[in-house]
Design goal:
This protein has 247 residues and is α/β, with parallel strands linked by helices. It is 27% helix and 18% strand. It starts with 5 loop residues before the first helix and ends with a strand.
């Protein structure tokens, strides 16, 4: 069994500061005050349950595998928040990490271990985990260079990876509930968002959507990569990238 990485990183958690998302309030990426948020959350939970079933099928984690979930949230209201922790059966082999304080997950799901991280990489040794899971995070880490660095970190710490993100080519943008505008070039899309008072989502570090081609380009060519596209109303709503890192 692989050495437990928690013993080497427990003291590396970043101090609370506004710059690393370490406050007690969750970052509201999903427009929780929008009147359609409740309906969207129920739909999102159904899609994420389907994605979880796909994860268990293609990743086939063993009881002994050490699994890392990157990007847990402090939100405790939305139905789809931290769905992986709720569903994953081997909680004593699950380590979860995020820039927000989600330490309550250790109390809510016995066996789960939470590690607070900053935005500058993961404080784990190379190959610490058998599987790295990451859902709907990469669109919130910054520009394409930041996204590529993020992917490299996932591949560095895990032998296998499973990453999901909303599909930019879906007609409705899931964070703002606006149709089609996100198909415009990013600067134009952001200008419209600012004009509509949606300044949070107009910043690249908060929302930078990917299409399939963009997602594939983030991965090194020598890794084993597969793309799966779950559908909603007959159209690919999400992109799932999974596989193994290069030897």
């Amino acid at each position: 069994m692989r050495e437990d990485p928690i013993r080497t990183v427990r003291d590396t958690q970043p101090p609370a500061s506004p710059g690393n998302g370490a406050g007690t309030e969750p970052i509201d990426y999903f427009f929780s005050s929008h009147p359609l948020r409740g309906l969207a959350s129920r739909i999102s939970l159904r899609v994420r349950r389907h994605i979880f079933d796909y994860f268990m099928d293609v990743m086939a984690p063993a009881r002994s595998d050490l699994v890392l979930d990157v990007g847990v949230t402090a939100d405790r209201c939305l139905e789809e928040s931290n769905f992986f922790e709720r569903l994953y059966p081997f909680k004593d082999r699950l380590v979860v990490t995020g820039i927000e304080d989600a330490s309550f997950l250790e109390d809510e799901y016995r066996g789960v271990r939470f590690i607070r991280t900053g935005r500058d990489g993961l404080p784990f040794v190379d190959g610490a985990f058998d599987v790295v899971f990451c859902s709907a995070v990469i669109e919130h880490v910054g520009d394409r260079m930041a996204q590529e660095r993020f992917v490299r970190e996932l591949l560095r710490v895990g032998r296998k990876f499973f990453l999901t993100t909303p599909n930019r080519m879906y007609p409705v943008e899931f964070h703002t509930f606006l149709p089609f505008l996100h198909w415009l070039p990013r600067p134009v899309h952001q200008a419209f968002l600012r004009a509509m008072g949606l300044k949070f989502w107009a910043r690249t570090e908060n929302l930078n959507l990917l299409c399939e081609k963009d997602l594939v380009r983030l991965f090194p060519r020598d890794c084993q990569l597969s793309i799966y596209k779950p559908r909603l109303l007959g159209m690919p709503s999400n992109l799932v990238a999974h596989g193994k890192r290069a030897a």
